[in-house]
Specification:
With 300 residues, this protein is an alpha+beta fold. It is built from three helices and 15 strands.
């Protein structure tokens, strides 16, 4: 009996030691994971906006503050604690809107509040005229993306002043400014007379020429839609439908007005409607064809 108790006691001791070992291993693993997480989440202090900054706002000690930021996710171009004093004393201004609490980045500030600081080195800014209609009723604001449409006269000797054509000459173009507005935060509809667009050098040439040969219009598009649409087709006045043509009235008295002529939308030959009789008439049916004959009046 004593031997059996000793065996049970020994087995229990072994199980206890095994449990302690496993518990220590588990807790050691948790501590190591926490240490690694703490190292990864090591915080540093970076300069952020203490209040909302619009285009041209100068950076001062009143609107710049320090905030803790994870060391492994500090944005490129951010200013750390040791660089804040130089940032403020250099007289930098915001060239793009900076929201409160957002890190102040090198790409969003400059020593001059000029629009050219927003233009990449291989791009150009071109200003084109717009109005309430061509500018989407003032709802186009800086930061939006638009397509540029050109309406002009159809070339050729056979075209008249009413023969117009429109096509998309540029797609997915960023708007830098509307009139003198360069801030992205102002989204109120405002009627503008000019729009400044960000294009490549060839696009700048196309816009400069387009302003001389026709009328430009902006088509506002979803900023997240980067897919090119099927805009190669040129739209003309014949694509608008209709096709009814009324000739001018004759000046001679007593003559009847010629019937309306219908021009097919496909551009086919002109078909004239049959002339309606003025006086009494009778219809003669021969087989499946019917014809109208006027009845002459004779005086008694």
């Amino acid at each position: 009996m004593d031997r059996r108790n000793l065996i049970i006691a020994g087995a229990a001791a072994l199980l206890g030691l095994l449990a302690v070992y496993l518990a220590n291993s588990w807790f050691s693993g948790v501590e190591q994971r926490q240490e690694r997480a703490a190292a990864e989440m090591q915080m540093v202090r970076v300069a952020v906006a203490g209040q909302d900054m619009e285009f041209g706002t100068q950076l001062t000690s009143d609107n710049v503050r320090l905030a803790s930021w994870p060391a492994d996710s500090v944005p490129q171009g951010a200013y750390r604690e040791a660089e804040v004093q130089n940032l403020i004393s250099a007289g930098h201004v915001a060239i793009r809107p900076i929201a409160r609490g957002e890190p102040i980045l090198l790409s969003r500030i400059s020593t001059r509040a000029v629009l050219s600081a927003n233009i990449p080195g291989d791009m150009r800014a071109v200003t084109v005229p717009v109005d309430a209609v061509s500018g989407v009723a003032g709802f186009v604001t800086p930061g939006d993306v638009v397509d540029v449409l050109l309406t002009r006269q159809i070339p050729g000797d056979g075209a008249n002043s009413d023969d117009k054509m429109v096509n998309v000459i540029m797609e997915n173009i960023q708007v830098l400014a509307m009139d003198l507005r360069a801030g992205e935060q102002n989204t109120d509809a405002t009627q503008s007379k000019t729009a400044t667009l960000l294009v490549d050098p060839q696009g700048a040439q196309k816009l400069a020429l387009a302003t001389q040969v026709g009328r430009l219009s902006l088509a506002l598009r979803n900023v997240e839609n980067q897919l090119a649409a099927n805009t190669r087709r040129v739209i003309t006045t014949r694509d608008l439908g209709g096709g009814v043509y009324l000739p001018a009235r004759r000046s001679s008295g007593g003559s009847s007005v010629p019937p309306a002529q219908v021009i097919p939308a496909s551009g086919g030959t002109v078909a004239a409607a049959p002339r309606r009789p003025i006086g009494p008439a009778m219809t003669v049916v021969r087989g499946t064809e019917a014809s109208i004959h006027e009845v002459q009046r004779y005086a008694r």
